[in-house]
Amino acid sequence: MGHLIPLLELAKVFADLHHNFHVTCIIPTLGFPSKAMTTVLEALPTSIDHVFLPPVNSEDLHTLHPGLQISRTITLSLPSLRDVLKSLVATNRLAALVVDLFASEALEVAKELRVSPYVFAATSAMVLSLLLHMPKLDETVQGEFRELPEPLKLPMVHTNSRQRSYFKLNGMSGDLSHVTLPTLGFPESHELSPPHQHRPCLSSSSELGGPPHSTPCCHYSVGCFVVDPFAIEALEVAKEFGVSPYIFEAVSATVLSLLLHMPKLDETVQGEFRELPEPLKLPGWPIPIQGRDLIEPLQDRKRKNYKALEVLAGDGSPPIFPIGPITQTGSSTNHVDESGCISWLDKQPSGSVLFVSFGSGGTLSFDQLTELALGLELSGQRFIWVVRSPNNGPADAAYVSNQSHQDPLAFLPNGFVERIEGQGLVVPSWAPQPRILSHGSTGGFLTHCGWNSTLESIVSGIPLIAWPLFAEQRMNAVLLTEDLKVALRPKANEKGLIEREEIAKVIKDLMASEEGALSELASKLASN
Ligand code: UDP
Questions:
Q1: Taking the complete model, does pTM exceed 0.90, yes or no?
Q2: Does residue 50 fall inside a structural domain?
Q3: Are 102 and 46 found together in one domain?
């Protein structure tokens, strides 16, 4: 869902706001689609429709790692995908096929049907870099990767300093037209690119991958090519075809600023960054809380001197155009209240409820789940908690299904559900998050700091408790607590466990600040 949701929101931007595209979402499924998925899809505007491909036989796949389940599902779905695409080609002017990174095999079908192929990669750059190099590693490394005596050295990750992977971003900056930056709070500035005087295109008669055709309008007109930072190498192809290249940085301004400064830091800092005696000081940090201060000068394209850009990235960097936030809103989801969250919230006092959720697939260990339950109870605060079954393995184990295989409520402490009646509501696996965050009774959000959740909370003016689990969530947590100062962060003990007393304290501090600084700052951010 963390991939599908931003992709659908991007589809809405294309369909409604800018280009009057009609969008068809083609969705392969493993078993039956989750309830969460059908709810989001059914709430789409009429300009976006969806087709579920016939479910592949899930029996054999459930034992596989989540990533393998997804890729196998795609492979098995290719024949039915081909049928659907063929019918679209026959009845419509099919402009392009945009696929998630996990579905890149589907590009073969696009090639076959001569449809312009695009990949939307909603992953971190490090992960994609590693994935792209896997086949080579597989050939060259003997035995298990974990047994390697030295850190891996990848072409995009030159040394054991992971930050070096961004070297390439800067190295290519001379070739790039634009970097797009989703930023906080400028819905009116949704704009993907400056108008194109010249629209290079692929002729319908040329093979994909063949030479570009210069006729400025035809069936397969390609205006621009947008890549995730991990797919930056793909810009070579854009260059080859004379198509405008863009990088879509799905990160905060603080993170972007850090990435752009990496090469310089890499030159000047000796040894590992983690060994630095002082916190890093970058020009322009902390990023001004009034996003407008940062972005307005960027939007004045006549100005040669992009002041705010200098702050962000120094001289010689490409222009930055804000296109975000790309978020779901409370009204964009279905109005049926199956979980009962909205009717429960309707009965609670204004700003009194803490919403607790770890995204579409984040899970806690059994011990941590217990501490969280008892901490919520101890705080005495009202809450809605989306509970997922515990897992002592990876925290992203529930990513594929977004659902727990066992009843998650069965893992809660004895008598917990009865004791918290009236104080809290526990919801298994999934809740209508954007509607909850935009409800007047919600006053705080305990979150894993996924970027979608972060933006959804901010646009609703809700202060947060930052509880990052994996990936870039820790950087988002630092942004929220230290730069924007709209979040509190609980401390873990020496075993990495956040104890019930600490949880209760942070919750009380957050909710007690309802009329206070945190909440005020959160509303200020939202109105900006
Ligand atoms: N979400 C939801 N209900 C839930 C859990 C998640 O609607 O119970 C949505 C949430 O609103 C967000 C997305 O799923 O849009 C999760 O994306 P995010 O980037 O926050 O985290 P990820 O799931 O990718 O870790």
A1: no
A2: yes
A3: yes
- Give the residue from 130, 103, 107, 118 showing the smallest Cα distance to 246: 118
Q: Which of 319, 411, 396 is nearest to 361 (CA)?
A: 396
Distance 326 CA to ligand 1 centre (A): 13
Give the model confidence (pLDDT) of 375-429 as tens digits. Answer: 999 999 999 999 999 987 666 666 565 555 678 899 999 999 999 999 999 999 8
The ipTM value here is: 0.99
| Number of domain units in the chain | 4
Which amino acid type is present at position 29?
Answer: T
Do 498 and 390 share a domain, yes or no? yes
Q: Which of 236, 456, 186 is nearest to 329 (CA)?
A: 456
CA 398–ligand 1 middle distance (angstroms): 12
3-state secondary structure of 26: strand
Q: Which atom of ligand 1 is nearest to the CA of 6?
A: 15
Binding pocket residue ranges, ligand 1, CB within 6 Å: 1-2, 5, 328, 357, 359-362, 386, 430-431, 433-434, 450-453, 456
Same domain, 244 and 164: no
Domain of 387, CATH number, reads 3.40.50.2000
Rounded CA separation 24/68 (Å): 25
